């Protein structure tokens, strides 16, 4: 099957990407791991012993990093509609976290505890229709924010990927109503031409 120009370009970029090569060498599941490593170095989000929730976690790039950083006394509760291979210090629930049955499984794992931090590198399946993809991505991060408002510990933190475009400014304003401080980051591991940015909310008002 002949590849389109854009998919060929993505493949070339991916094969030659220094972060992809580094991930393979470092035994990390994804180049996205370096985004979380960099964001954590900058914003000091993860400490040993923390309880973290990772929404949209497959293939596990962020859960792997978070699991290592929280250590044996901490825990990561990860969820995705796609399967994910096991990781140390990570409990994985496969399914749509907005589905009542899956949400209940998450609550059962939390067992009355509230996460210190909720992270999400979630993205929709890309259709190639820019307006539709943007709407899908905003819908997903809105669902993530709903979850944050239901379970995050007061004064807890939040980290999510947002694609800049229709609806992203309104989303930022909405997040600001729930957190003491909100900043936008563009990690070096994020491809320059990508519209993705990372929103860090600190001090959940609960």
Automatic annotation (TrEMBL):
Active site: 161
Function: Specifically methylates the uridine in position 2552 of 23S rRNA at the 2'-O position of the ribose in the fully assembled 50S ribosomal subunit.
Stretches assigned to the Ribosomal RNA methyltransferase FtsJ domain: 29-204
Protein name from the UniProt record: Ribosomal RNA large subunit methyltransferase E
Enzyme class, broadest EC rank: transferase
E.C. code: 2.1.1.166
Gene transcribed to yield this protein: rlmE
Localization (cell): Cytoplasm
Catalytic activity field: uridine(2552) in 23S rRNA + S-adenosyl-L-methionine = 2'-O-methyluridine(2552) in 23S rRNA + S-adenosyl-L-homocysteine + H(+)
